[in-house]
Amino acid sequence: MTAFPFLSVLTAVPLIGAITILGLGDRQKSRARIVALLFSLIALALTLILWHWFDSTSGELQFQEWHAWIPSLGAEYRLGIDGLGLVMLLLSALVVTMSIAASRQIRERERLYFSLVLFLEAGLFGTFTALNFFHWFIFWELSLIPAFFLIQLWGGPQRVSAATQFFVYMMVGSVALLLAFLALFHCTGTFDFLRLSQLAREGQLVPDLASNLAWHRFTPDQIALFIFGGVFLGFAVKVPLIPFHTWLPSTYAEAPTGTTMLLTGAMSKMGVYGFLRIVLPIFSPQVRSMLTPLLWLAVFTVVLSAFAALAQKDLKRMFAYSSINHLGYCMLGIFAVASLIGKAAALTTTALTTTQTAALDGVILQMFNHGLTAAALFWFVALLEARSGGLRGLNDFGGLRRVVPIFTGLMGITLFSSLGLPGLNGFIGEFLIFRGAFPLATWAASLSLLGLLVTAIFMLTILQRVFSGPLNERWSSMPDLAVTERLALLSPIALMFALGIFPQLILGVINSTVIRLVQQVRF
Amino acid sequence: MTAPVNYLFVSAIIFAIGLAGALVRRNAILVLVGIELMLNAANLNFIAFWRYGPHPEALTGVLFALFSIGVAAAEAAVGLALIIAVHRHFKTTNLDRIDSMRG
Amino acid sequence: MIWIVHNLWLIPAMPVLAAGLSAFARRKNRLFAASIAIGSMSLSLLLSLIAFAEVLRFGNQNGTEQVFNFGWFQVGSEWLKVGWVLDPLTAVMLVMVTFVGLLIFIYSIGYMAHDDNFARFFCFLSLFAAAMLGLVIANSLLLLFMCWEIVGLTSYLLIGFWYQKPSAAAAAKKAFVTTRIGDLAFLLGMVWLYSQAGTLLFYDNGAGCLEHTALVKLITQTTIFGMAASTGIALLIFCGAVGKSGQVPLHVWLPDAMEGPTPVSALIHAATMVAAGVFLVARVYPLMSGHVGLHLPTTSAPALKVVTWVGAITAVFAASIAVAQNDIKRILAYSTVSQLGYMMLGLGVGGVAVGMFHLITHAFFKALLFLGAGSVIHGCHEEQDIRRMGGLRKLMPITFATYAVGMLALCGFPLFFSGFWSKDAILHAASTWTGSRIPFYLAAFGVLLTAFYMTRQVIYVFFGESHRFEKAGTLPHESPTVMTLPLVILAGFSMLLGLIGTPAWTWFSTFLNGQQVRFDLRGFAESGVLAVMLSSTALVVIGIAVGWFLYGNKPAPDPAAPDALERFTPQIFDLLRNGWFVDSLYGATVVRFTAWFSRVCDWLDRRVFNGAIQLISSLTLGASRLSRSTDFFVVNRTFDQSCQEAVLSGRLLSRLQDGRVQSYLRIIGIAFAGFVLFLIWGHHG
Asked: Are A235 and A271 in contact (CB under 8 A)?
């Protein structure tokens, strides 16, 4: 569309911002947040411009940049976005902006904090635009390092162990991913996602793997499955899927709340994105051969995390489990799409396409919605912590609605958005996922409904314990939201309403992409 | 017994005396003297081999001996200078005491 | 296209606008909030009447449904469409909801006059009205479901309106969660329907899911247990109706919902929202019956059988509980559950018209009863225990008169009260049902119980002496006109409305079915009509008589004294007072299981999953310690040892290098000698 290297510029903006902030003098230290906000807003504006120029009728990759880099390593600098990438870019830019806006309580080493946040943003942008494993992986790791320091330097009392746990988990996943891709490169000679996907579609991938990795006694399918396992582990840790999730509750609880917003709003999407961009187009047959266990994992993720959230006493831990739960629906949708056996045989091709499209549409919508809503929820927790001096237990409050009615109202809207109330953003995504998953994996979809029920229970429990009942006199002078806070919160909440009423805003962008993706899955 | 053998005997004896002197004496100057003796034994050999060698008409042996004497003179000068320097430093010329290069 | 069909969305849009405006209004701006809410409701009523007139006009010309559909969002190559429908069912519901809603809004001005959150109350009520109207006009199951959930939300907000009361907050949560159980089954039914029929539109000029093509496909397809797909879908959707309409076994939330302000109970938990379940069944009736149109099918439909049985059981079950309650609103709540059971029964045995007729009449008289109860509570200074009342008929004459009308209508007292006609239609249909006679007997027994508990309540509240209040020094007072006027209007409708559905002039059912109506007295002569009427009348009279015998004409008993019935059979009375212990049962099983399972999950997470990780990390740490000690003790020590050796041997060799020139010379000499010897040797050898 344009020769201008838009995506590289977009990735560079937060990097420049990060360096600018590091270069601020001691006297301008307090301006670090404003500068960071400025740069994140520029990035957001750029993504909006991208959105404007994006041709949503085409499912192909757009704004492509393609340069040879290190040919001997198969490394090419290749960027491009389709609807999925665009939505993820939008989400990242939005969540980073929200996170910076919410990080008012950061008072020490602000420059470092905000420049790390911007580094993280650059990592996110790079991950969502890269089409070659080589620099995709660099960005993937680049986002990890700032996150580690953000947790370790500004986190709660258990921050060191939480940060270590987070980092080690991520590294294990990354190493598995790297090894799997090295094997792929060894066998196919390319790191390019699109070429790999094409090889897979042509049925060339498995023989290639088998002939190059003639591990004794393993059949080609087993070898392919093994490689898939490495990639799967890398993404499953990031999403996370139960049982690869134990880093998440402690990390989310210990990280400073602004960072938690980033982790849940944007970074957890990297895993789902990986499933959509890499696992489905390249490893569809492997997913299919492991379908039942994978669906069980998704169901476990949905149900166990919802019940575990019900047992928590700490708001952040509660929302952390709720996050796992919401992404579990995404995984349900993704795995269901890969199934073409059994039930699907009864469907006609058009019906199948519609069903699969619905599921993937729902998954992407759910990713965006969850990013928005979960980030907003953690923002509310940050505001609550700022007012309560760090307390955030479920039983530490009571009857707050009387003293902070506006806070209650806005947080109530967000909670209901999170539990999937129609008219707010959460509903359509979940509806579409179930619409797609039900005919393809009926039992899994039915079992997962339990998660929706339990989500309602614990969300309402929060409303009941924290905001209703007699006022806890300790908080009788808690200030309600200030005007600036209201204004800042207004935009995510307005977006929740907007997406609840016009889901076409997102669906229109991703629809063609999803149709193409569905074609790619079918081999 | 042919002529060169006699010369060689003489030179071997001189060499042996020189070697013994160099090995046994404690005084550095006498060691130097021993070394000079050994050099002279070598010179004698040069002359003897030249005189009874296959080409006595060319003056190679004489030239060797002359060079050798020159070198020996230079060596004696350097050696004596060294000994003086050592003596200044260690206040002795007894070689058994001078073992600062011991490993 | 007719203007009103095209712009049907305006009807719910008015209250949405009102809700939005009053949400941003200042808290003190009471007049503003109330006036825009009532103004928007009046406009909606006006539009509803226009729509109704339109239906009346076109009803006999071009089919019964007028639809307007539009694409909402893209799913793959197709658009998901939603839209609205104007048919007799919609029109009737629209008029009922807006009319009753308007009256209740007006009543609320008086009832909520002293509340701090007056403006927010109207905001929530308007939002409710909007969602309810949206639900009624929806021509897509998805749109209907969305509005369905939003009415659930407003119900939650309004039950928990007095949020400082922990019981209200708990009741609100219970209501939302209980109905959500049903809603999730509904959701499942919906996605199933969508994936089978390819559309969620009800009517789409032949392509809708309730129309012939799709329906045939659904009926012929069999699924698990040999059910037709349509039956499975219908049953799942019915689960949603069970939750919303408080049918057994999900009825437990409705009595607790009485924690909300009384106008809320009247509007949401009696007249409109809880009837949404009945409306839903009526809306998807072709799915339920496996048969196009709103008539009862000639062949037996399994889904309708379930509806019938659930309805019949609920009717009796809830009525029996109402007998032993002492809270004026809880009696009415159980009565509502029971009446909703009748409506379901009517749908199951008699088709849409029978059930809907009772829905409409019930909306009026139950709203009347609740508002009357609200007036009583208001007059008695927030007293809700009927045993602490008495003799109010002299102090609150208007309330008493209207309440009596409502009571008689609810009991189904003959001829002049609407409940008689609508309930009779249900009983008659039940008596002719081919499936079984038991639902009919259950329903008839329910009639007896209804008459009994209403008599008991009215006697407790309005009869006897009012001396208890005199002692307390605060006499109850009649409510202001703004509250009594709606009562009078509702009372009028409770009496007259029955006339639109008598056997002689079946205007209502013919209207719903889009047929011509004619007046024909022979309707009474149809087999069994008169017999059923007479027997139900007899049951009502017996019920009232027994009530009068037990409670009437006696000095008002001390509040603490046991009830007349309790003296009779204490165990049964206790059982009924506790609602057959269903709440305790759920508390002991479902609730406890959920709590237990959540702890298990937490434990699993902390101990098992995290434990496994901890184990792996400890193993890793252990391995690294082992490796470190191997390094330290084995590798390092060996290396040190060999170093030692090297040093020793070096020391040995370094002895050669003693720094003495002569020993070097000596070595050279020995080496030279050895070399020479070697050469000689080599030469000879």
From this structure: yes
